[in-house]
Amino acid sequence: MSTDPSATSVVGGFFLRVLLWLVPLLAAWYWAREWLSLPVAWVAEQAMRGFFSYWVTGSELEGTTQTLLTALEVRAPDGRVGELAPTANILSYAYGTPFAAALLLAVDRQGWWWKLPLAGLALIPFQATSVCFTWLMQVAVLAAPETAAQTGFDAWDMNFFAAGYQLGFLLLPTLMPVLIWFALDRRVVAALLIESALERDD
């Protein structure tokens, strides 16, 4: 049995290092938020143009809020007709970038110069997917009475987009950084788990 009950466990020490790294990384990420939003915004717009070119006309990025420009007509309460412009805040889906960096730096700082940018690039498609599902939920679900005839979306599409929105908002931002960390640090993660198991047996 261990003779030092106050000693920090391997896993506990790892989570402490993650938190210590996460604080400055979140600050740096927030400081660079507008610049880091650019690639996510570009991928999200290109995806929507590719899949829904018959009603998507482009997008506008103001700070970290991206507005999808559409040709979908909606009627205001006063009777005026305008074009639907759903919005998404990229920050809501991009906090996985500093989280992934904190995981990588907390375990092994060797190779950080290529692992950190690679992790950031790998997260962009998933962050853009979350943005797209946020738009689609607004178009296909919230504005369904006015847009269904124009988009051709049916009940199955509405349920799919709603589920995608929930997945993109609740799961992808936290799950994907962990999976990417596993992929980039497999040996170190395995060593961490083994060391933790041996510690429990002491």
Structure description:
The protein has helices at 10-31, 33-51, 91-94, 96-107, 112-142, 144-151, 155-184, 186-201; strands at 56-62, 65-70, 73-75, 81-83, 87-89. A three-stranded antiparallel beta sheet has the order 1-2-5. Strands 3-4 form a two-stranded antiparallel sheet. 30% of the residues are buried. The chain has 202 residues and is mainly α. It has one domain (10-201). Helix 1 crosses helix 4, helix 2 crosses helix 5 (112-142) and helix 5 packs antiparallel against helix 7 (155-184). The protein is elongated.
Main structural class: mainly alpha
Query: How do the SSEs run, as a string of H and E?
Result: HHEEEEEHHHHHH
Strand order of the largest sheet: 1-2-5
- Strand percentage lies at 5-15%
- Over the alpha carbons, how many angstroms does the gyration radius reach? 21 Å
| Quaternary state of the chains | single chain
Q: How many beta-strand segments?
A: 5
Helix content: over 70%
Contiguous low-pLDDT stretches (5 residues minimum) are 1-7
Largest sheet geometry: 3 strands, antiparallel
Distance between the termini: 5 Å
> How many domains, in number, for the residues?
1
Average per-residue pLDDT, rounded, comes to 90
Count of helical segments?
8
Question: Which term fits the overall shape?
Answer: elongated
Please specify the SSE layout and strand pairing.
Layout: H1 10-31, H2 33-51, E1 56-62, E2 65-70, E3 73-75, E4 81-83, E5 87-89, H3 91-94, H4 96-107, H5 112-142, H6 144-151, H7 155-184, H8 186-201
Antiparallel strand pairs: 1-2, 2-5, 3-4
Helix pairs in contact: 1-4, 2-5, 4-5, 4-7, 5-6, 5-7
